[in-house]
Amino acid sequence: MAPRPQHGRSYTPSFPHSQISNPQSHSFAKETMAAMSAACHSPARLSISCSSSLPARPLRVAVVGGGPAGASAAEALASAGAQAFLLERSPTGAKPCGGAIPLCMLDEFSIPLGLVDRRVKRMRVLSPSNLAADFSRALPPGAHIPMLRREVLDSFLRSRAADAGATLVPGLVTSLSLPVGPTDPYLVHYISSGGDGPSPTRSVLEVDAIVGADGANSRVAREVGAGDYTTAIAFQERIRLPDKEMEYYDDLAEMYVGGDVSPDFYGWVFPKCDHVAVGTGTVAAKPEIKKLQSGIRARAGPKIAGGHVIKVEAHPIPEHPRPRRVVGRVALVGDAAGYVTRCSGEGIYFAAKSGRLCGQAMAKEWRLTGAVTEAGIRRGYLRRWDDEFLLTFRFLDLLQRVFYGDNAGREALVEMCADEHVQRRTFDCYLHKRMAPPEPWADLQLLWRTAGSMVRCSVLGKEVQRLRRLEMLQA
Ligand SMILES: Cc1cc2nc3c(=O)[nH]c(=O)nc-3n(C[C@H](O)[C@H](O)[C@H](O)COP(=O)(O)OP(=O)(O)OC[C@H]3O[C@@H](n4cnc5c(N)ncnc54)[C@H](O)[C@@H]3O)c2cc1C
């Protein structure tokens, strides 16, 4: 939707010339910067930003990062009439990712089925002793887990943001100039990679607010002092399989647990259009990641034999939310905020959801008050986010601590994955992103079975570790 003038006050569409400048594109770079800086503090501008009546011009927001979080934020902002600038350093790149999304995301984010590479209807979880639990027996009829390639999903979401009116800016954000006063603009400094000239050019964008959607190594978070978080490292190989082996993974995904594939996470084989994505992750043993990757390849063994690696990729995954997710008029979303669940490593849906919530909150506050404020973003975005998802994140955190610590816990986890009650509740929670209502009697029985599994498996787990040690001695 195009931004509209309000209350009969004059409105001049201001992109790109009034907000983006390229200091290297003419010889008066310093003058331009000085003029821009002066302009930022000019009374005329202040009168626009400060206005507590309805806004006379659209809100200007820089969304840094064009993954699911950034694209969704930009789409929400533009749809609400804001000027959204979506800055992405690598528009043709592919984020390293397993690409599994919950079913509800297709509807909620209107993602066409045609973008889905594979619809996984069978999910197998394999224990350290290679016992397999068919985790998909309780998958409701017609349900599936969509698997996509991120380059496909991300470029679709970015195009849709552009269709809604967002301006796509190919460029690497290098720093921010923070405002002095509460209504002064932010300056976003970036190296544009989409200019006409042969070499990249330095440019500056002036905005009222910023959405940091730039992933786990967020530059925006660093610039505003949002604090650090622990990260895991995830490693993945895209392996093209011979037809027969690929047929095996037609609608099947596998998850492997065990100290050999990860001391604190799981390894996966996820099917994609013409290959499988095979990977693993860890926080505790980052320097060992390649050895763990060999572990998952060894466990999948003959099922991926004859395949050749077409791509190797790795990326950090946040372990918990950042200490500060909103600083001034800067809000972090997606991985930049730290929204990946432990235990499952899921982040795509949470990225898109947080981006959308944040964009909507900023646009609404601007529309109602003519300003965007830290308190408003906290109220409209952070509080709603925490109300909806904090419990899920804490629950999965607890599960990881209970079940991923050693092979005994992992054996118990796989045993429990075979339980239909567990499957039903997991799918409710994962596929539809809703916490299932408590079923006291069934839950109590489950607790009892879990305790039984933990005891049984601590014996089995020790035995598996002993056998593995023997195997290694003999090798
Ligand atoms: C190997 C691996 C497997 C995974 N598998 C799954 C899975 O199967 N399912 C799932 O739900 N989640 C998975 N995740 C997690 C998921 O990938 C992330 O949670 C999700 O990508 C977060 O989206 P985002 O938009 O917040 O950040 P990102 O997808 O990381 O996007 C950030 C964007 O910002 C851009 N950017 C960064 N810095 C700058 C800058 N300075 N200037 C301009 N642009 C910048 C980047 O190029 C990137 O496009 C996996 C992660 C990894 C590493």
For the terminal residues, how far apart are their CA atoms? Answer: 66 Å
CATH topology of the largest domain, which one?
FAD/NAD(P)-binding domain
Main sheet: strand order: 1-10-9-8-3-2-11-18-17
Helix content: 40-55%
Enumerate how many helices there are, as a single number.
14
Chain-averaged pLDDT: 84
Radius of gyration using CA atoms only:
25 Å
Category by helix and strand content: alpha/beta
CATH architecture of the largest domain: 3-Layer(bba) Sandwich
Q: Poorly predicted ranges (pLDDT <50, ≥5 residues)?
A: 1-18, 22-52
The major pleated sheet works out as: 9 strands, mixed
CATH superfamily of the largest domain: FAD/NAD(P)-binding domain
The structural domain count equals: 3
Bound molecules: flavin-adenine dinucleotide
Structure, described:
- There is one protein chain.
- By secondary structure, the protein is an alpha/beta fold.
- The protein folds into 3 domains: 20-92 and 152-227 and 322-392, FAD/NAD(P)-binding domain (3-Layer(bba) Sandwich); 104-151 and 229-318, 2-Layer Sandwich (D-Amino Acid Oxidase, Chain A, domain 2); 402-474, no CATH class.
- The chain has 14 helices and 18 strands.
- The protein has helices at residues 29-41, 43-50, 68-79, 104-108, 150-164, 219-223, 243-248, 289-300, 334-337, 348-369, 374-403, 407-417, 420-432, 440-474; strands at residues 20-21, 60-64, 83-88, 118-120, 122-126, 132-134, 145-147, 167-177, 186-192, 201-207, 209-212, 231-240, 252-258, 262-271, 276-282, 308-318, 326-327, 330-332.
- It has a 9-stranded mixed sheet with strand order 1-10-9-8-3-2-11-18-17. The protein has a 7-stranded mixed sheet with strand order 6-5-13-14-15-12-16, with helices on both faces.
- The model is unreliable at 1-18 and 22-52 (pLDDT under 50).
- It binds flavin-adenine dinucleotide.
- Residues 64-70, 87-90, 93, 95-101, 172-173, 213-215, 219, 234, 236, 279, 315, 317, 334-336, 340, 345-349, 351 line the site of flavin-adenine dinucleotide.
